[in-house]
Amino acid sequence: MKSGKRFHAVILSAVAVALAVPAGAQTARPHHQHVMRGQSTTLAATPPMGWNSWNHFAEHVTEADVKAAAAALVSSGMRDAGYIYVNIDDTWEGKRDAQGNIQTNSKFPDMKGLADYVHSKGLKLGIYSSPGPKTCAGYPGSYGHEAQDAKTYASWGIDYLKYDLCSFIPIMQKQSNGDPQKAFEIEKAAYQKMHKALEATGRPIVFSMCQYGWNDVWKWGPDVGGNLWRTTGDITDKYDRMEQIGFSQAGLSKYAGPGHWNDPDMLEVGNGGMSFDEYKTHMTLWTILAAPLLAGNDLSKMTAETKELLMNKEVIAVDQDRLGKQGDRVWEEGPESVWAKPLSGGAKAVGIFNRAETPRTISLKLSAIGFGQNAKLRDLWAHKSVQANNGVYTVTVPKHGAVMLKVSE
Ligand code: GLA
User: Fold this and answer.
1) What's the CA gap between 5 and 324, in Å, rounded?
2) Choice among 234, 237, 263, 265 that is catalytic
3) Residue that terminates a domain, selected from 266, 294, 319
4) Is the C-beta atom of 239 inside 6 A of ligand 1?
């Protein structure tokens, strides 16, 4: 399964260069007009939370795995902590019938039954497709069947669609005769088309755009109906990749808000490829980024540490804060950085990160994040109050680790 994922990454980065459009050439509307259009304004009012099959199960996922994930969301307490969406990624798709209706393959014998099961647990069901004729894993995509597929999803009771560019890329290239600007317009139209098709079903279906962050998607994602859009290529269960993706999100905060979120990809927490401190950095950064929190591990086999990382209610509250503001980098020096996220009520969540190979003692000046000497500090991983001295909070952060604070007046 790992080699399949690497294949995706190589193919996608090769065509990225060919299709990139200079930022100035785009015609996105100014950000203040980026309000939710079309679908209900409560859809994805806070960043979607749930689980997705890809990071752990990849192309091997079956109905039994999805049911087990739904059951585990409930029994572990994750559902009650906010993880609601159960998202089937690629490889559920079967052939089309004589009328062109998409069918499931033998791994998913009864999608409507699965949706009923997931709904009976107080959860929602997500699915995956592509604007191209094939998905990234080579299964049928929605090309030429957009309205039909949207209706099928609605009839099954689907609540979330991840729409992955993949095989639409050669179509964009061909139809545009290699003109990147034309290719870009064709891509936008394809996303808009599926958004309209979903909207026409009358069922609220979260629309997740997956085109790897090309052409500054954060500037136009809301205009084509995206509730979230991937800002990068695929994450892997390695510190270096998670670090590269997470810390590259500086400067994107102004593009996110209720109903439209930047998506630095799904979580790898609990998959085993990172240390506890590295996963803590992953959660701290993703929640400060108001990122969608889609667990990507095997929920039926979770250690106490994995549960602690995924279900820290104070940390989740940062991600889900009703103000809906994404955090951003406020300071960086070498491997040390501080990121802050405004919260409702005037507080801020603050991440203090150490990307070095050894522990570092880092001093945070409260004035640098807009607070005076008497501000109150709470360590959200340690669940305790901590003290600043003369307006400076000094803490030792482990190698690749993070400290997360809530600061309030
Ligand atoms: C692409 C996406 C991944 C996953 C796979 C499925 O690589 O970016 O998140 O959906 O396709 O094939």
Assistant:
1) 32
2) 234
3) 319
4) no
Q: Do 356 and 214 reside in the same domain of the chain?
A: no
CATH number where 84 lies:
3.20.20.70
Domain-ending residue, one of 277, 292, 319: 319
Please check whether residue 38 is in contact with residue 199, taking contact to mean a CB–CB distance below 8 angstroms.
Answer: yes
Ligand 1 within 6 A of CB of 137: yes
Ligand 1 pocket check for 234: Cβ under 6 Å: yes
CA-proximal residue: ligand 1, atom 11 (nearest):
136
* Tens digit of each residue's pLDDT (9 = 90 or more) over 263-294: 999 999 999 999 999 999 999 999 999 999 99
State in Å: Cα 178 to ligand 1 middle: 24
Q: Give the Cα-Cα-Cα angle 251, 253, 255 (nearest 5 degrees).
A: 105
Q: Are residues 295 and 371 in the same domain?
A: no
Residue 48 CA to residue 174 CA, distance in Å, equals: 35
* Ligand 1 lined by 278 (C-beta under 6 Å): no
Please list the alpha-helical segments (H only) found in 76-166. Answer: 78-81, 111-120, 146-156
> Any catalytic annotation for residue 234?
yes
How far is the C-alpha of 266 from the C-alpha of 296, rounded, in Å? 6
Q: Could you tell me if 247 and 314 lie in one domain?
A: yes
Calculated CA dihedral for residues 328, 332, 338, 341, nearest 10 degrees: -10
Same domain, 313 and 392: no
Q: How far is CA 223 from CA 172, 195, 196, in A?
A: 19, 10, 12
Taking the model in full, what pTM does it have? 0.92
Q: Which residue in the list 149, 164, 223, 321 is annotated as catalytic?
A: 164
Looking at the structure, do residues 313 and 337 belong to the same domain, yes or no?
no
Domain check: are 167 and 237 in the same one? yes
Our answer to whether residue 65 is catalytic in this structure is: no
Q: Is 315 exposed, middle or buried (0-12, 13-18, 19+ CB in 10 A)?
A: buried
Which stretches of the chain score pLDDT less than 50? 1-4, 6-7, 9-10, 13-14, 16-18, 20-40
Whether residue 152 is found in the same domain as residue 110: yes
Domain extent, residue 402, equals 328-408
Question: How many Cβ atoms sit within 10 Å of the Cβ of residue 134?
Answer: 15
> What is the signed CA dihedral for 60, 146, 35, 48, rounded to 10 degrees?
-20
Q: Give residue-wise pLDDT tens across range 223-249.
A: 999 999 999 999 999 999 999 999 999
